[in-house]
Fold this protein.
Amino acid sequence: MTSSYTGNRREIQWKKIGSRKLKDTIAKGLSYVVLGMMVVILVSIFIYILDSGASHITLTMLITPGNTATGGILNAIVGTWELVGMGLLFSLPPSVLGALYVVNGRSNGTLSLVARLFTDVLTSVPSIVIGLFAFIVLVQRLDMGYSLIAGGLALAVMMLPYLMRIIEISFRNIPKEQIENAYALGADDIRVASRIYLPQAKVGMLSGILLAVSIAAGETAQLLYSAGWNNNYATGFTHSGVGYLTYVVWNGINYPTTYSHYLAFVSAMILILSVTGLIAISKYIGRRQ
Amino acid sequence: MEEKVEKIIEIERLKVETKNKVILDGVDLNIFKNCVNTIVGPSGSGKSTLLRSLNRLLDMDPSMDVSGDVLFEKRNIVDIDPVELRREIGLVFQKPNPFPMSVYDNVAFGLRIQGKKLKKDEMDKMIHQALEDADLIEELGGNLKQGGTSLSGGQQQRLCIARALVLRPKVLMFDEPTSALDPIAKGKIVDLIRALKQKYTVILVTHDMNLTRKVSDYTNLIYEGKFVAKGTGSEFFESEIEEVRDFLTEAD
Ligand SMILES: Nc1ncnc2c1ncn2[C@@H]1O[C@H](COP(=O)(O)OP(=O)(O)O)[C@@H](O)[C@H]1O
Ligand SMILES: [Mg+2]
């Protein structure tokens, strides 16, 4: 393939599809306009929240627990990470196993297909439905009460499909020959998983975890029915509600005092900063790989 | 010749098929101990599939239906634990593909996964020996910490050979080991294969008739999943069999 040949071909194409090229340009231009509008809207929300949060933040808010109307939000900050951590604990092992199964499974593909379908369905279940389900099964049936476990499980259901998908992709990026080579050297499934898949997919998995965590941190609907709320710190894994930032945002705004609004804005600011921070880190790590 | 030399692998009526295609169509073949057993044949004739069936790597692919018998030292391979079998019958792939870890860790891989606790100096010794047998130790200048993937193509291929050798297999299979290498790197592999047959049984799959001429003790031609010439030495090149003549013309 010489450069002169490529040049000729380009010229021919240019003449042939001139009008298509024009349409292309218009479509591209339009999508840039829409993208620009979205960026403007997003950035203004961002600035508004940061501005309202930053101008009302106090140290007391950050170091004392509270009830969304008085006191601080430390219970909600701590509770958010406890819930997310619990969600990760429940969702990461099955995601890794599921991804290993889908990528490396010896089944004839039907089971992998079922797994894929299952995770796709999970992604599209509205979070309020997951919450309601958690309420009926965990909070009531299994008598856990509003709790870390119930909230963590409700978050895990939502985190699982994202995690599994991203982990699956990072597993698929490992050259197939390497997997075969490991087997040819006498590795069994467990060794191949622990010595090839996991170490090599580390970075991809980490960026998936950060993404799933950031998504979970911003969730409210399923937590309302599962974690409930707590004006103080959770005292156990069950039968003790948990505070979380999205609740403060939701409840604080509804409460008719200026201070509760401030709490809501500060909580929203903390959430936005953590989530964008996590996403940025996950993108950075992902790109560096 | 056949009577004097011991058979280490006996393949009988080996058939490998997928839903739509017969890949190996009732293969009967003997592999002779401490010899270079060469398998040549056009692309797509089933050479790689044959190697994969010998160490039961094909078991991993549920779409492959395998029947017939393969005896390894008189034992049917289906009665041997595949992990065990794969340590006895090593496979070096066409494309060199070290793991993304140090040279040392690459070679240590097969030892470490055995779960046996080896003393550090014992492990060091085995790894040095394997790298020496693979004719790599000198070029590395003693630096085994460097990444396996940073070596040249030919060195990577020899690293993969060392990785298989460290397990002290009885049989070493090479799937077109020189096809991705430059002439100098090729030459080194030729010397290596010659040296290896003192200690190991070699099964060599190749397209390279020069390589075959130089190292092969028994040359077998596979054609569309069937062997059309078997167990011949240098007379392979004078064969009157039509497929052999066609293949030789194509290959040169
Ligand atoms: N995993 C597989 N699934 C289906 N067909 C396969 C698979 N692997 C190989 N084949 C087919 O089997 C035939 C032989 O392949 P292969 O053993 O790789 O040939 P060779 O190594 O001689 O080039 C080819 O037609 C190939 O398409
Ligand atoms: Mg092949």
